[in-house]
Design a protein that fits this description.
The complex is a heterodimer of chains A (about 290) and B (about 180). By secondary structure, chain A is of the alpha+beta class. In chain A, about 40% of the residues lie in helices and about 20% in strands. Chain A has 10 helices and 8 strands. In chain A, strands 1-2-3-4-8-7-6-5 form an 8-stranded antiparallel sheet, with helices on both faces. Chain B folds into 2 domains: about 70 residues, RNA polymerase sigma factor, region 2, helix turn helix motif (Rna Polymerase Sigma Factor, Chain: A, Orthogonal Bundle), CATH 1.10.1740; about 90 residues, Arc Repressor Mutant, subunit A (Orthogonal Bundle), CATH 1.10.10.10. Chain B is built from 8 helices and no strands. In chain B, helix 3 packs across helix 4. The termini of chain B are far apart. Classes of the chains: A alpha+beta (about 290), B mainly alpha (about 180). At the A-B interface, helix 4, helix 5 and helix 7 of A face helix 1, helix 2, helix 3, helix 5 and helix 6 of B.
């Protein structure tokens, strides 16, 4: 089997992001050298794009949603129909827990009322947006090794260039560390594409003191930040969510929507330094801290 | 990292996947009433399950596995055996990618592509939906279908080959029609 046959046999795996590391690199190297294989890749990419853009094939009707919702609500209130013998002891313990809970409620009621009144102008829909959920899911899968990076580099320029012919928007990662001459607080690790809303979003992986940080970028026409706690800072509106134990901050700026995911402290606002490390940007990060 | 710590969080996260589940149910049943029943059955089973996934990342695949098992149970009760049959693995697929008409695929109407997917044999339609519409990885598909990842790879290759042929043939017909109208 010659090199071209071998590469063409693996193009589907390459396009499905099932190749990693050196295997992926060898395909990419060949594609830059062989016009014929690059043309075959372009054809396959066109085909897959047409198929992927045809979805979703079906949408659940509002009536079906209405039927399902009570089924899921029932999960919360389901109780055993028959009491086991051990339930008597449990009941006594339960009464103690109830009494303690009542006492705690009396103690913390003023705080709860204050929080409610203080946030009465907060949006009623606090559910994370699908983009925030996607970013958190991708972060988890990458950190668990289930989703490999497609390109590995510590250079923002290289990563920005890698995205140039792969996504429909411009990705320009800043290099604040170099220009500021400050101590290196984080490292850029690499990037990959992530399917979102029948299009590709850009995924960028960073690491700060061994803790992973993910930045996911898509067009503002594809995803709008919503839900969670809304915080205004320097003309932008940030949405903060805690998802799967992760801190997710989403916002839109100049035609793009971003999601920053980490397991850092508080609201994960320290993850913002991947783009805003300069001391002049401190006042950008400060408002994101919990009050 | 326990991502779905409460029943409320689980219910909310599970409901996010209703469109994907309904799409998969339609792929399996090809009937709106049966598909809606299957979606309900899936959610009932998921709500009763003891070992739910501890993370939202694996929830969708878990729900798809429940749906496929529920559907297979229904089929076994209704018929003697499952509807999906293994498709001849020796089927050729290599020619489609060289067909020049494929380059025009991006211009095809979404409806045409959907129609082509719908006209695929069951097993092919299912794998295309799982990979290209729902975006599952090969390993995730292997878990849903309960088969080796190698089978996923080869079946997906054959399914896409068939899809390319269908779309290419339709494109050729459309061009011939257009030329006929001009003459």
């Amino acid at each position: 089997m010659n090199k071209c046959e071998d590469i063409r046999g693996r193009l589907a795996l390459y396009l499905d992001h099932e190749l990693q590391g050196t295997e992926r690199a060898s395909v990419e190297t060949h594609l830059t050298e062989c016009e014929s294989c690059a043309a075959v890749l372009a054809k396959q990419l066109n085909f897959l794009k047409a198929v992927r853009e045809s979805g979703p094939l079906y949408i659940a009707s509002p009536a079906l949603r209405e039927k399902i919702q009570p089924l899921l609500n029932d999960v919360q209130v389901s109780v055993p129909t028959a009491k086991p013998h051990s339930a008597v002891k449990t009941d006594v313990r339960f009464r103690w827990v109830l009494a303690a809970a009542a006492a705690l409620l009396v103690l913390f009621l003023p705080i709860l009322v204050w929080q409610f009144v203080g946030q009465s102008d907060a949006p009623s829909n606090r559910r994370p947006s699908s983009f925030a959920l996607k970013a958190a899911e991708t972060h988890l899968r990458v950190t668990r090794g289930q989703l490999p990076l497609e390109t590995q580099s510590a250079s923002p320029q290289d990563i920005s260039e890698w995205f140039s012919d792969k996504v429909s928007f411009s990705v320009k990662l800043p290099n604040y560390q170099e220009s500021s001459g400050q101590e290196k607080l984080y490292t850029l690790e690499g990037a990959r594409l992530v399917g979102f809303q029948n299009d590709y979003a850009a995924y960028v992986a960073y690491r700060m003191k061994s803790r992973p940080i993910s930045l996911v970028i898509t067009s503002a026409s594809v995803a709008k930040p919503s839900g969670g706690e809304e915080i205004a800072s320097r003309g932008l509106r940030f949405h903060y969510n805690a998802i799967d134990g992760l801190k997710v901050i989403t916002w839109s700026d100049r035609g793009l929507t971003y999601a920053l995911v980490s397991d850092l402290d508080e609201r994960g606002q320290q993850s913002c330094i991947v783009c805003h490390e300069g001391t002049k940007d401190r006042d950008f990060i400060e408002p994101l801290k919990p009050r | 990292m326990n991502s779905l710590p409460t029943n409320a969080a689980f219910g909310q996260a599970a409901l996010e996947h209703i469109d994907a589940l309904y799409g998969y149910a339609m792929t399996l049943t090809r009937d709106t009433t049966e598909a809606e029943d299957l979606v309900q059955d899936t959610y009932v089973r998921a709500a009763r399950a003891v070992n739910r996934p501890d993370s939202d990342a694996t929830l969708k695949g878990w729900l798809f596995v429940i749906m496929r098992n529920a559907w297979l149970n229904q089929v076994r009760h209704k018929n003697a055996g499952p509807l999906f049959v293994d498709i001849d693995s020796s089927e050729s697929t290599g020619d489609a990618q060289d067909n020049p008409h494929v380059v025009y695929l991006r211009k095809l109407e979404r409806e045409q592509v959907r129609e082509a997917i719908e006209s695929l044999p069951d097993a092919y339609r299912e794998i295309v939906v799982l990979r290209d519409i729902e975006g599952f990885t090969y390993q995730e598909i292997a878990t849903v279908l309960d088969c080796p990842a190698g089978t996923v790879m080869s079946r997906l290759g054959r399914a896409r080959g068939r899809l390319k042929k269908l779309l290419s043939a339709w494109q050729t017909k459309a061009r011939v029609k257009a030329v006929g109208h001009r003459n």
